[in-house]
Write a structure and sequence with these properties.
The chain is an alpha+beta fold. It is built from two helices and two strands, in the order βαβα. It has one domain.
Length: about 60
């Protein structure tokens, strides 16, 4: 990685809200964000979210934002 980008995401968060399991995609996004100095939060499938209780995607996005 170019060292010019090492801290470009310092203090920033990336929300990863996967409604279908996608281990490679989720881990590649998380790895990239960590490499840029940021942090990640989220869930890896809808079963781990309030969607399993009927919450809409819009409601989830509003809470996460």
């Amino acid at each position: 990685m170019d060292h010019n980008y090492k801290h470009v995401a310092d203090g920033r968060h990336l929300a990863t809200l996967f409604y279908e399991p996608s281990t490679r995609t989720r881990l590649s996004f998380e790895s990239a964000m960590l490499s840029l100095g940021g942090q990640t939060l989220g869930f890896s499938s809808a079963a781990q979210s309030s969607a399993s209780k009927g919450e809409t995607i819009a409601d989830t996005a509003r809470v996460v934002s």
